């Protein structure tokens, strides 16, 4: 009997525990269902301080759309933007035509908007909006498109060469012999009119004697005198030499050749005692008042240089001295090894300090007369086939614009087409904005193509396929 009583008591205790546990379970479920409506509000409050605020805002907008009966393709009166479709942010690949609760998550579908229905939707494709906070985080900087004159500045190196336009030659005008040579070595300095060599010309002796004989015998026969005078000219005698023969009434078989210009003897072929022929070059004289500098220009910078560009040159061989000149010509020749072009620069050479072969560094500075639109070079995105800049518009909107660029120098680039003065372009973080704008442009085109399909019935859609 005692055992049976104990068994009944144990069964009663277990039953009581079961009933109590069920009551606690029902109480917890009731409290959970009572607190559930406040959960979205709590999540929305937290999302306002975080990046997930757009989801909460989208849920609120979706609830408002359910009340107003807004579907895809209609305009939201709250912001004036067309509703493209609804989606679950956690499953963005699925699109819905009407607002509802997500079949995937315990949340409302979020509306996805297009551009404002102002008739310019097609023109605004690719435009992206960035909030001020995001702009600050990305370090977005902009610069104004200004009008100005581009001042190309090119650095180049080169070597000094003779100015071939300041070159003269010493030639023999008659056959003879060099009896005396006053200049005996190359690179000797000479001055204009300085004696260079003394020649003995045998052919002149007979012609001069004939002239003096006719002058004595037939002084009245002017025709005969003119004929003998002309013979001396044909033998290479100058009018000054003929005048000396006429005034001295004596044969002048020797001639003294003089330096035709001041400079140095760049080439000397004459030697004492050698015979010469008419037209034979005895020496070449180069002036040193001006010299040439052959500047090596990279192909990419050749367009920045033109004839007449001012040049400043310095040489380690003449420290502390600045030589000035201008670009004479761009030579039509490209070095296949270094891919450089040569620019011929004429430099003033006071005191003859610059000599051929000397190394010089040059600064070629030009100022374009015409004004142009200028932007920072770092604002240009080179894609290989086109140049793009991100145009900053009002309300944090950015739009990619194709531009045609021109010259670039000193961190500035000339814009020939695509921009206007006063506009602002992005000079930092433009690659991120351009990527976002490109993705948005692709999405907008896909949406515009799929929009007609969204309103079709299943039967119409199947017929279309």
Topology:
Layout: H1 2-35, H2 38-48, H3 53-68, E1 83-88, E2 91-96, E3 110-113, E4 128-129, H4 132-138, E5 141-144, E6 146-148, E7 153-161, E8 167-171, E9 176-181, E10 189-190, E11 195-200, H5 202-217, H6 222-234, H7 239-248, E12 254-258, E13 263-268, E14 275-276, E15 281-286, E16 290-298, E17 310-315, E18 318-335, E19 340-348, E20 359-365, E21 372-376, E22 381-382, E23 387-392, E24 397-409, E25 412-417, E26 424-428, H8 430-454, H9 458-464
Antiparallel strand pairs: 1-2, 1-3, 4-24, 5-26, 6-21, 7-16, 7-20, 8-15, 9-11, 9-14, 10-13, 11-12, 13-15, 16-19, 17-18, 17-20, 18-19, 21-25, 22-23, 23-24, 23-26, 24-25
Helix pairs in contact: 2-3, 5-6
Describe the protein's architecture and organization:
With 465 residues, the chain is of the alpha+beta class. It has 5 domains: 1-36; 52-114, no CATH class; 131-150 and 371-453, conserved putative lor/sdh protein from methanococcus maripaludis s2 fold (Beta Barrel); 153-164 and 287-365, Beta Barrel (Elongation Factor Tu (Ef-tu), domain 3); 181-272, no CATH class. It has 9 helices and 26 strands. It has helices spanning 2-35, 38-48, 53-68, 132-138, 202-217, 222-234, 239-248, 430-454, 458-464, and strands at 83-88, 91-96, 110-113, 128-129, 141-144, 146-148, 153-161, 167-171, 176-181, 189-190, 195-200, 254-258, 263-268, 275-276, 281-286, 290-298, 310-315, 318-335, 340-348, 359-365, 372-376, 381-382, 387-392, 397-409, 412-417, 424-428. The strands form 5 sheets. Strands 4, 5, 6, 21, 22, 23, 24, 25 and 26 form a 9-stranded antiparallel β-sheet that branches. A 6-stranded antiparallel beta barrel has the order 7-16-19-18-17-20. A hairpin with a 4-residue loop joins β23 (387-392) and β24. α2 packs across α3 and α5 (202-217) runs antiparallel to α6 (222-234). The longest helix is centred in the first third of the chain and has 34 residues, at 2-35.
């Amino acid at each position: 009997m005692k055992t049976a009583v104990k068994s009944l008591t144990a069964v009663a205790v277990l039953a009581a525990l079961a009933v109590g546990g069920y009551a606690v379970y029902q109480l917890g479920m009731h409290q959970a269902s009572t607190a559930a409506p406040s959960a979205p509000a709590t999540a929305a409050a937290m999302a306002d301080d975080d990046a997930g605020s757009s989801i909460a805002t989208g849920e609120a907008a979706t609830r408002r759309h359910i009340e107003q009966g807004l579907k895809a393709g209609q305009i939201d009166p709250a912001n004036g933007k067309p509703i493209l479709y609804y989606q679950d942010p956690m499953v963005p690949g699925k699109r819905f035509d009407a607002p509802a609760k997500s079949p995937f998550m315990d949340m409302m579908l979020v509306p996805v908007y297009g551009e404002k229905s102002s008739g310019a939707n097609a023109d605004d494709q690719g435009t992206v909006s960035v909030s001020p906070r995001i702009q600050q985080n990305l370090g977005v900087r902009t610069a104004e498109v200004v009008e100005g004159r581009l001042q190309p500045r090119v650095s180049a190196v080169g070597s000094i060469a003779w100015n071939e336009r300041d070159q003269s030659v010493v030639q023999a005008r008659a056959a003879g012999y060099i009896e005396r040579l006053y200049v005996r070595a190359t690179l000797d300095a000479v001055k204009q009119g300085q004696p260079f060599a003394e020649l003995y010309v045998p052919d002149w002796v007979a012609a001069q004697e004939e002239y003096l004989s006719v002058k004595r015998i037939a002084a009245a026969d002017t025709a005969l005198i003119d004929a003998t005078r002309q013979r001396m000219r044909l033998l290479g005698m100058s009018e000054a030499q003929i005048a000396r023969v006429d005034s001295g009434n004596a044969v002048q078989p020797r001639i003294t050749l003089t330096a035709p210009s001041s400079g140095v003897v760049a080439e000397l072929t004459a030697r004492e005692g050698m015979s010469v022929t008419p037209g034979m070059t005895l020496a070449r004289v180069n002036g040193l008042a001006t010299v040439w500098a052959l500047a090596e220009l990279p192909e990419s910078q050749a367009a920045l240089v033109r004839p007449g560009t001012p040049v400043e040159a310095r040489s380690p061989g003449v420290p502390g001295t600045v030589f000035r000149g201008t670009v004479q010509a761009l030579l039509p020749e490209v070095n296949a090894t270094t891919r450089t072009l040569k620019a011929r620069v004429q430099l003033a050479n006071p005191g003859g300090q610059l000599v051929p072969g000397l190394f010089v560094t040059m600064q070629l500075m030009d100022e374009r007369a015409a004004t142009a639109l200028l932007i920072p070079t770092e604002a240009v995105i080179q894609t290989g086939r086109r140049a793009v800049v991100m145009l900053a518009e009002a309300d944090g909107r950015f739009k990619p614009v194709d531009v045609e660029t021109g010259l670039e120098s000193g961190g500035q680039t000339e814009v020939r087409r695509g921009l206007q003065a006063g506009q602002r372009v992005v000079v930092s973080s433009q690659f991120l904005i351009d990527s976002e704008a490109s993705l948005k442009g692709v999405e907008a085109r896909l949406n515009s193509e799929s929009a007609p399909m969204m309103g079709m019935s299943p039967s119409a859609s199947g017929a279309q396929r």
